[in-house]
Amino acid sequence: MGWIVGVDGCKAGWIAASCDVSTTKAPILRVERSWSGLIRSLPPGSLVAVDMPIGLPDHIERAGRGPEQAVRSLLGARQSSVFAIPSRAAVYADTYREACSAALATSSPPRKVSRQGFHLFPKIREIDGFLRAEPAWRGAIFEVHPELAFRTLRGAPLQHPKKVEGAVNPEGMAERRALLRAAGLAEEVLAAAPPRGAAADDVLDALAALIVARHIAAGRGRPFPDRPGRDSHGLPIAIWSFAPDRPASQDIAMSDQPVSRPMIEAAAERIAGHARTTPVMRLGTGAFGSRADVSLKLECLQHAGSFKTRGAFNNLLSLDVPAAGVAAASGGNHGAAVAYAAGKRGVRATIFVPEISPAAKVEAIRRFGADVRIGGAQYDDAQAACDQFVAETGALKIHPFAAPETMAGQGTLAKEWQSQEPDLDTVLVAVGGGGLISGIASWFAGTRVKVVGVEPEGSRALQAALEAKAPMTVQVTSVAADSLGARNVGQLVYDVCKDTIDHVVLVPDSAIGEAQGVLWRDFRLAVEPGGAAALAALLHGAYKPGPGERVGVLVCGANVDLARLQTVAG
User: Fold this and answer.
1) 343-395, pLDDT tens digit by residue?
2) CB within 8 Å of 24: residues ≥ 6 apart
3) How many domains does the chain have?
4) Pick from 242, 265, 288: which residue ends a domain?
5) Among residues 377, 397, 417, which one ends one of the domains?
6) Do 457 and 426 lie in a common domain?
7) Structure confidence by residue, pLDDT tens digits, 411-427
8) Domain with 18 in it
9) Nearest to 52 by CA among 122, 136, 153
């Protein structure tokens, strides 16, 4: 395919990330003062993706050109990053006042020009003049938008802005670096200092454009609008993105989701040596009086007592951690996992817990070296206190479920499970906020393995979302509320689960207690209520397997009050 190039405007001119796709060499970053100088330096046949408008209509309808209108709805809170580009007459005006006058006269309804947009006009004119003079390049230079590229890579709108009030936002930069890393860019490129004359965010935008160029060159380009227009000089008018890669093992419905198999594989490599490989206990056909061939995945033996250690390490190892350290809100297990991972990485951790958190879990968090703060009566209060702390200090917030890094980390459990039990038909997975089942379902998507969620009857946020076809807020009253007590799974979890899990079953608290007792009496496994919920579905008959069905049951949490367990077990 030859050379591909991603380009963004920068203070010194243009920053380009280029590579020869016929080799495995890392992209080359450089700054050129002029557009024509940049293009003349490229090998013949290069394909260029640039974050700058191409094609200027003589008249503008509504809020900017067609491409801007087509992509804004995809970006969530990032919609304001897509400027409303005015008419050609306004772009070629000499002063801001003249530009506003020309824009008002050539738009319906009349619109002025933003100051930020006006500062882009010289660069827009550079590209426009070049393409008008060099028509042979019109089929090789494509307009892109970094936020659309990142949105496509994530499969959903980004969680964090790149800048806040003009200043670089560390969370936003870390989120974008993680997406570029998952797209295959080497760490040496992502960690390199920006070339002179360019800023760190310019580098990320150029690399995002490079990813789009790679897909366009491979025939996966996608224009917005789907039929690009032309201006009066014949220049194309479209913002380009791409159709994501579809691994052979992945269902088409998951190809636009934020967590893919490659992301989970990368997470598995990242956390190797940090998280334990937990064992599988094979019980055979007829276990627990069922007709199935049953095995237990003992993730309760993970560091810090739960699967959440996987997601915690993946966050810490893939995101930039500021001097203020990391912060999390937790009913217990997530906080313990973040505290454990932070302690192993030498990072400061501040954990906000609600008053309902079990004393055993709070003590575990303190034992791992974190600063524990009571954040209110319920989990939502602790989350609000955590968010305020993050805003004030700049600490990195590690979300317990609604983040791709967390989901990909939890997905490593499924990758490991499949290698241990390659013939599974069904897996039963307890659901709280949904990060665990999202990661597991993302791994198994498109395979023969059926993923079934298990929720307490008094805490059914995922089942409610699937029934309503949108995230719903539910009331929570369950013995497992400290670990399976999310009131709303959120849009990200819903978007993953709606296409990848088979269904959700509900179990009463009495069945959860029975499962805890069975695990302690028969296997000497001290498991908390949430960790026993998946087994409760099998014991209680909420899930009825067929004869000989190979069912894997996830036992996922061991942070239990032993005195209470003794009461439950009898």
Assistant:
1) 999 999 999 998 878 888 888 899 999 999 988 777 778 888 898 898 888 89
2) none
3) 3
4) 242
5) 397
6) yes
7) 999 999 999 998 899 99
8) 3-242
9) 122
